[in-house]
Amino acid sequence: MTVFNNFGEAVISALGHALDIVLVFVPLLLGFLLILLVGYIIAAALSKAVTFLLRKIGFDNLANRIGLSRLEQNMGVRLDAAGILGKIVFWFIFLVFLVPATNALGLTAVSGILNTMIAYIPNVFVAILVLFLGTLAATFVADIVRGATASTNIGNSNLFANVARYAIIGFAALIALEQLQIAPALLNILFTAIIGALAIAFGLAFGLGGQDAARRWLNRGESAVTNAASQIQAQQSVNQASNARMQAQQTATQPQAYQQQAYPQQYDQQQAYPQQYDQTAQVPFNRPPTR
User: Fold this and answer.
1) CB 103 within 8 A of CB 110
2) What is the pLDDT of residues 130-174, one digit of tens each?
3) Which residues of 133-148 are buried (b: 16+ CB within 10 A; e: fewer)?
4) Cα(201)–Cα(207) distance, rounded to whole angstroms?
5) What is the pTM of this model?
6) Nearest 5°: CA angle at 253, between 248 and 258?
7) Under a CB-based contact definition with an 8 Å cutoff, are residues 107 and 122 in contact?
8) Is the distance from CB of 135 to CB of 98 less than 8 angstroms?
9) Could you tell me the sign of the dihedral formed by the alpha carbons of 260, 263, 266, 267, in that order?
10) CATH code at 107-205
């Protein structure tokens, strides 16, 4: 009988202890679920707002221009660029609310891991922004290179444009990986190696494959210099001829001016000879005799 009493007391004690645990855990669980519900509602609202604003400002058109939509199709993603950014905002906000929810549940280890993830998420945003701006700049530079090479007839314009595009995208990817803190020492070595390889490749391409283009550039430069020199010589000849005509006109007008200055007064015999020569005064007049 004593054994049954002890067994009954043990069962009642265990059930009471379990009930205490349940009564303590239920409020924590309710708090966890309530925080998650509020976080989900806020995250969903902000996600829809961001997606709506991005679509209104034409972000999808910009994504199509730089090739993000084609990349999404290749990856099998059904959302557009604005929808993807909206989803990223949703999960970021939801993780922010998940930290206090796990703390309320008493899962301190899980909350520590989530805090580390949330602290790392800004690096992800910066890396995404760097890739986006790098892709945008690569598309812009590729269009400029394509137009410049096509107008000057220098080789394959699409080839030069693609080289410029993927080079800029590669640099942006390296910067993004550096921001994500993925093997920074290895990335520095890789970056230096890529710069050296591009320099060597450009030198070889220009020296071997670009001989005709370089020859055309030099011929055009020589023609431009020759034309400029001939124009300068022609202008100098015109100026010399004009100066010669002006000097001839001045020489033709100089004698008249010299006579007017050398002889300001008309030659006057009365001034040169103040007394008129009078033959009657020098030779006597003989009258005939009167008869």
Assistant:
1) no
2) 888 888 888 888 888 888 777 777 667 788 788 888 888 888 888
3) ebbbbbbeebeebbee
4) 10
5) 0.52
6) 130
7) no
8) no
9) negative
10) 1.10.287
| Sign of CA pseudo-dihedral 136, 141, 147, 150 | negative
Task: Quote the tokens at residue 253.
Answer: 């007008």
| Cα 229–chain centre separation | 37
Of the candidates 82, 74, 176, 71, the residue with the CA atom closest to the CA atom of residue 134: 176
Q: Can you read off the two tokens belonging to residue 184?
A: 């920074």
Q: Are 54 and 81 in contact (CB under 8 A)?
A: yes
What 8-state DSSP symbol labels residue 156?
A: -
**DSSP character at residue 58:** T
What's the pLDDT tens digit per position in 171-214? 888 888 888 887 677 767 777 777 777 777 666 665 655 566 66
Residues in the chain: 291
Between CA 247 and CA 254 the distance in angstroms is 11
Contacts of 195 (CB under 8 A, 6+ apart): none
The amino acid at residue 177 is L
> Mean pLDDT for the chain?
75
Distance, CA of 164 to CA of 157 (rounded, Å): 11
Written as six digits, the tokens of 230 are: 């001939």
In what helix (H) or strand (E) does residue 280 lie, and over which residues does it extend?
helix 279-282
Per domain, the residue ranges of the chain are 7-101, 107-205
At 220, list the tokens.
């055009």
Q: How far apart are CA 73 and CA 60, in angstroms?
A: 13
Q: Could you tell me where the DSSP H helices lie in 57-107?
A: 59-66, 68-75, 81-105
C-alpha distances in angstroms, 48 versus 88, 95, 132, 258?
11, 17, 21, 100
The answer to which of 170-184, 248-262, 271-285 has the lowest mean pLDDT is 271-285
